[in-house]
Specification:
The protein is α/β, with parallel strands linked by helices. It has helices at residues 2-5, 23-42, 61-67, 95-102, 127-146, 199-204, 219-226, 230-234, 278-281, and strands at residues 11-17, 45-49, 77-81, 83-85, 153-157, 181-184, 194-197, 209-213, 240-242, 245-251, 269-277. 29% of the residues lie in helices and 20% in strands.
């Protein structure tokens, strides 16, 4: 009887890089593929980035495009924030500041195509809500219109608590169904006031999503999301080499135990990729 009520299996691709230092090159391949397809099809590449440690993996992206023999056509890139802290872009907590310093300042993407929050709204009484609404109406929706209704590539980190963007375990925003960009004033991580993309955007309006994480603190999250110990994961006979990493198809636990595991593109398969290092996968045979 259990088989009759079992949910449909959702799978994703897991890429295990041999080391943290090699994540950048592994991460670059799906970004390059997505970029080529987007520009060929629509003449624009809409890339969404989160903050945290993620931007540090993008510093060599320009060289990796050149190595792959692909013209990045940077003037066609549009970079959005997956989430942002409600602080000025000069603040050390700003995700835009990190993305600029680690990535966009080193490549010729037009500055007006790297979209931060409207900092003029930060002093308003309902500032967080106003910032979120402005980002949805003035940044996200116009870009969706240019991209045939879907963002091309969303690159996200995930925390040791399983959060992604500013979507935290147990928070009401996990059930948000109407807003595409939502405010949060009670983030369990400082600073408390932020804006974030919601699951309707991540799951329904994204062509490609890539998670990226490194370090042993991510091991518990991987085991929870994929429902299998990483020891068993690394004993899989279905692992092949792809982009210098071990690649395998993994099934995701339903219901997901963490917000990052709730991110699932409608297409599934290769449209959802997790890139991690050997430490995150604990005992990876790449060692």
């Amino acid at each position: 009887m259990a088989s009759e009520t079992k949910s449909l299996v959702y799978s994703a691709k897991l890429l295990i890089a041999p080391s943290k230092a090699s994540i950048s090159s592994v991460l670059a391949d799906p970004i390059i593929t997505s970029c080529k397809s987007a520009i060929q099809s629509r003449g624009i590449f809409a890339l969404v980035l989160s903050g945290g440690s993620l931007p540090s993996f993008l510093g060599t992206l320009s060289q990796l495009f050149e190595k792959a023999g692909v013209d990045a056509q940077w003037d066609k890139w549009h970079v959005l924030l997956a989430d942002e802290r409600c602080v000025p872009s000069t603040d050390p907590d700003s995700n835009l500041r990190s993305i600029r310093s680690n990535f966009t300042n080193a490549v010729p993407i037009p500055q007006n195509q790297v979209y931060g929050i409207d900092e003029g709204l930060l002093s308003s009484i309902e500032s967080t809500d106003a910032v979120a609404m402005a980002y949805e109406e003035k940044v996200l929706k116009p870009l969706l219109a240019k991209c045939d209704g879907m963002l091309d590539c969303v690159v996200l980190g995930f925390g040791p608590d399983g959060h992604t963007c500013s979507l935290f375990l147990g928070h009401p925003l996990l059930k948000e169904e109407n807003r595409l960009v939502a405010p949060i004033d009670d983030s369990p991580k400082p600073p408390p006031s932020r804006i974030t993309l919601t699951f309707p955007v991540l799951n329904k309006l994204s062509r490609q999503i890539i998670f990226c994480g490194a370090g042993s603190s991510k091991n518990r999250i991987l085991e929870g999301v994929f429902g299998i110990t990483t020891k068993k994961l690394n004993q899989s006979n279905s692992i092949v080499i792809e982009s210098g990493a071990r690649a395998l198809s993994v099934e995701m636990v339903d219901p997901a135990p963490y917000p990052c595991g709730m991110v699932r593109t409608e297409q599934g398969g290769d449209s959802l990729v997790w890139v991690v290092d050997a430490d995150a996968a604990e005992g990876s045979p790449m060692n």
